[in-house]
Amino acid sequence: QVQGRCPSLPSPAAAPVELSLYYESLCPACREFLVLKLFPTWLLLPEEMLSITLVPYGNAQERNVSGKLDFECQHGPEECLGNMMEACLMHEAKNFSTYFPVIFCLESGTSVTKNLEACLQIYAPEVDSGRIAACVQGDTGVALMHHNAQATQALEPPHQYVPWITVNGKHTDELQARAEASLLGLVCHLYQGEKPEVCGSSKAPKFPAGCRR
């Protein structure tokens, strides 16, 4: 009878759906998924429904050259720079809701690596671009990329292409296909709590094939 006597007792909150995106900054299919699927879904859903982790690295290769770590990226040096810029942005901004719109801005623009100042001015003017530049040019950026390399290499099953999506720590062909076909529908289906109105129905176009190794 406790609930009847205490109707204002808060119900335990459901755990958010945890989505991790392993991607490359210049991979066309990665950019399309992030810009057209992931970012709009994040905007539509309440914060407590979806927790996103971004890991910019993808099919890059980490090498030890004369005692220093070096990275070779699928789409060349500019992609390595883009990956590190986004990793440093996350490190400096810290708050997901601060840095995700900036990454959306970078990935949706004509150049991922040349629009940082403009994207920061629009979405996160409080973040110091100088600190991001120092991170990219210094040891911190290398350490962040090493961390992303380790996280990507630890995937089970190992990633075969990007974008590579895990949902609640798991990757299957079915989960990947459902996330790419209708991410909003998938998150709404998996979330155990009270669902918002936007979870009514959602269908979306297919995306191009991923960037294979």
* Helix vs. strand class: alpha+beta
Low-pLDDT parts are: none
Secondary-structure element series: HEHEEEHHHHHEEHE
Question: Briefly, what CATH class?
Answer: Alpha Beta
Helix content: 40-55%
What topology, given as strand order, has the largest sheet? 2-1-6
Total domain units: 1
The overall average pLDDT, rounded, is 93
Principal-axes geometry comes out as globular
Question: What share of the residues does DSSP label as strand, in percent?
Answer: 15-25%
Largest sheet: 3 strands, mixed
Q: Could you tell me the CATH topology label.
A: Glutaredoxin
Tell me the Rg in angstroms.
Answer: 19 Å
Task: Supply the CATH superfamily name.
Answer: Glutaredoxin
Alpha-carbon distance between the two ends: 60 Å
Specify the CATH architecture: 3-Layer(aba) Sandwich
InterPro entries: Interferon-induced_GILT
GO cellular component, one term: extracellular region
Family: Belongs to the GILT family.
Protein name: Gamma-interferon-inducible lysosomal thiol reductase
What are the SSEs and their pairings?
Blueprint: H1 2-5, E1 17-23, H2 28-44, E2 50-56, E3 61-65, E4 68-72, H3 77-93, H4 96-108, H5 116-123, H6 129-137, H7 139-153, E5 161-162, E6 164-167, H8 173-190, E7 211-212
Parallel strand pairs: 1-2
Antiparallel strand pairs: 1-6, 3-4, 5-7
Question: Would you kindly provide a written description of the structure presented here, covering whatever features stand out?
Answer:
- With 213 residues, the chain is an alpha+beta fold.
- The protein has one domain (17-199): 3-Layer(aba) Sandwich (Glutaredoxin), CATH 3.40.30.10.
- It is built from eight helices and seven strands; from the N terminus they run αβαβββαααααββαβ.
- The chain is globular, with a radius of gyration of 19 Å.
- The relative contact order is 0.19.
- It holds the Pfam family GILT.
- It is found in: Secreted; Lysosome.
- Keywords: Disulfide bond, Glycoprotein, Immunity, Lysosome, Oxidoreductase, Redox-active center, Secreted, Signal.
- This is Gamma-interferon-inducible lysosomal thiol reductase.
